[in-house]
Automatic annotation (TrEMBL):
Alphabetized InterPro entries for the sequence: DegV (IPR003797), DegV_C (IPR043168), DegV_domain_contain (IPR050270)
Signal peptide: none
Name of this chain's protein: DegV family protein with EDD domain
Domain of life: Bacteria
Keyword line: Lipid-binding
One Pfam family named in its UniProt record: DegV
A GO MF term: lipid binding
Amino acid sequence: MKIKIIVDSSSGLSESQANELGWGFIPLQCEIDGKRFQIGREFFIEDYKKIWEDNKKVDATTSASSPALSELEVSKYINEYDLVLIYPISKHLSSQTSFLMNQFKDNKKVYVVDSKRVSYLIVRDLLIFENKINNGIPFDEAIKHFEVNNERLILIPQFNDALVKGGRLSKSAAVIAKLLRIVPLIKYDFGILEKEGIGRVFTKSLEKTVSEMYEENKENLEDKILFVVHADSDLIESLISKFKVITENKLPIYSIKLPVDISIHTGIGAVCVTIANVDKGIKDKITLFAKKW
């Protein structure tokens, strides 16, 4: 089959990065102080970081993609390809997936993934899927991969403002957390963000989390990579240096930007870490969307 892949901006890719991988792109939307933007097409994490630094109480929300834009993107490929596969943000984090499924339910040439992923997890899934298709594995078999690979993935916010605004942390709890220097540890489990525990200091909590992950995996590091997902370039270099020491320089480390769609809800400064399996067949494509340290 000739298949065209489309991602949305929750993948963490910009439109140009998605196109470089040969994929189409649908932007989710954000509204910042009353102005609406298409994420990954005209508004990027650097733009939001600057706005946030100027006003940490900025009024920012996200919403699903415009149906008109989704229809326009699909129409570019529908005649040239046997199938258009859309891999959107996790259905547990947004209405995007259900909207797209409903929009294209009568079009047999469009397949919308029942997504439980976000950020680099979407990109990795699709690179593996492409590799399987290119090796002659039937479509129905290749898509089963989207239901596996649920590595331990922990997100740690540096600031609690966005969590309070989104109702994920009460104001009183945020005050206590600030006084006691407590940070929440949030695990990403098959598309759902859930409480994992608490730490005492942001950087120390990250170091402890990476150390625990490394100990769990150190007996078999083949084809494994430490992924660090972040929104603040000013912070990442010092963290990576510490992670290299923790992992004894035995584990490749890659970093990618946290999607705007997620940063608005977790705050600038949030960092997500995981040790992920990366198939040999897709390693050469990682540098198209991630930075190797």
